[in-house]
Amino acid sequence: MAWQSDMWLLPNRITNFRYIRARKTEQGIVNVEEIAAIEETGGTIEYQDSTSLKVSASLPFVGNFDVGNDYIRIYSSSSIGATREEVLHGTFLWSNPKTDYSGAVARGTIECYSLLLLVEQAKLRAPLSLPPGTAAVAKARELVESCGLTVISDTSTMVLSMPHNYRAGESVLKVVNELLTSAGFSLLNINPAGEVLMTRYTDPANREPVLILRDDKQGVFFGPEVKHTFDTFEVPNEVTVICSAPDDVAGMSATAINNDPASQFSVPSRGGQIIVHVEEVSECESQAALQAMANRILSEKTGAVESIDVTHPYYPYVPGDAIRLMYTRHGLDIAGAVTSQTLRLNRAMTCDVHVRRFIRM
Questions:
Q1: Where would a tag sit more exposed on the chain, N or C end, judged by fewer CB atoms within 10 A?
Q2: Alpha helix positions (H), 251-349
């Protein structure tokens, strides 16, 4: 994502917010009008990389609120002096707001949901049988587009080697995510414009940090409190993934080992003690894809127990991106993937983020 300036590295920005009614048309989702009833500040946007819907929002309103079946878009406009940047943060479905009446004033909260809710709520109307040779990602795309959403997808030549059968009534989102996982893709995601994303999984440890948080003037500053969490109970340092196959075909397996001396859970740090976690999958594109899956599972199971929580001014990255925290006062230097972010819609536009630490394999 390219930006016009380095203003995101500077403190003391002033931010305003706009809430726009947006409508689905044959040409895509278009903005219609500003929504006056939503209070400019006081709301939040929640990004959760580990959840199926990825993003939600909560917005306070005063007076009468009703945008029918249209969507809500949230924009911020941040400025320092003559420098200004506008950001679209999301396109949302909304639920019937809860309203409290006090005299002549009506107040309430609008709960907003990712457009991926349309895929989650869609159900298979009949049993679905996918024979060997079915292009997994192409089929996943077809299913999402049948929900009326626009898809942006990486290319894939992976085809199923075994039959996949799904019952009537299964969530389309569940089926799509299973197909994407078998092809070595990340789970379904969505961008702020409301376009669904199908992307190949990339190990966060192989991503360059998009942001460095420091407690000095050499990076984006952060709040005084940093929570550094360890939960070491039965943390594996070796993961083996087995891909099952028909009786007449040899299966595949892949193993990932945590040999990172900087990780207290690694084989060297534990004096050679190995704690193994084994998983079995029914489909995998290739040996390389299976290895990537083993690496991902090991990273997730280690990252889930070694993490940091920190608050900082908004910077334009998304959950899944890599960031680095350098807390020189306490000797902390941790790189990891952002797994959750709470964006507070206030003038300072502060973010509470949860970061899982990388392991190197």
A1: N
A2: 287-303
